[in-house]
Each structure stands twice: as C-alpha cells, then as structure tokens.
UniProtKB/TrEMBL annotation:
It comes from the Bacteria. Residues 21-85 form the Immunity protein Imm33 domain. InterPro entries: Imm33_dom (IPR018689). It holds the Pfam family Imm33. This is DUF2185 domain-containing protein.
C-alpha cells in the first residue's frame, strides 16, 4: 500500500545525518505527538551528550528522510519497538542488526514477512 506523503508523519532526525554523517541507529516508538511517526534516526557520531540536547535534532518529512536514506521507505511501517543498528562495509550500507533479537536481520524479517 502506497501512503500519501502527508500520512507519513515526521521523522526525528539527528542534525549530523543532515550534515552527511552515516546513519548508525534507528528505532521506532509509538509517538506521543500525532505529527510524528515514531522513528528516531541517529548518526554514527551521536554520543550521549549529543543526543541529550534537543537542539541537535530536527523533524523532517518523509520526502527528506527518503532522499537521505531511501531504504527507510522499505521498512517505514515496521512495528513499534523496532530497534536497528545499520551495518556498513567500507563505508557502504550493507544491512541491519536487530538490537532486540541480537542478530543480523533483513527487511522481510523487520517487516514480519518471514
């Protein structure tokens, strides 16, 4: 099912990702604000001090998020509680590690299709 752009809600995105730093971590929680979709996206440079400052994040549209990381569109509707580390090889994104299941995972597994 293809959703209209305005039905996606906003992604809470680290400003480091906007600066081109690779995504290291994404998780989804049930949003407390209806305008958000529950996805939080962190860069590989985001430490505890950085993420503790709300000024280091911005809310972006699906169009912006999917232009930065098109693969997010493939698992956008993953269930709340999804908790993923992004895996890289020589600077190229190659997959995901499910931090809840403690194993490498695939998009079909993330989506519950397997």
């Amino acid at each position: 099912m293809k959703m209209r752009e305005d039905n996606y809600g906003g992604f809470l995105l680290s400003k480091n990702v906007m600066l081109g730093i690779p995504i290291a971590y994404t998780y989804r929680v049930e949003p407390s604000i209806p305008a958000l979709n529950g996805w939080y996206i962190y860069s590989s440079r985001d430490d505890n001090e950085y993420v503790s400052n709300p000024e280091n994040f911005e809310i972006v549209s699906a169009q912006t998020m999917f232009s930065i990381a098109p693969v997010m569109a493939e698992f956008f509707e993953a269930k709340f509680g999804t908790d993923l580390a992004w895996l890289y090889e020589e600077g190229v994104h190659i997959g995901f590690y499910d931090l809840i299941a403690d194993k490498e995972t695939t998009i079909p597994e993330i989506m519950g299709w397997d």
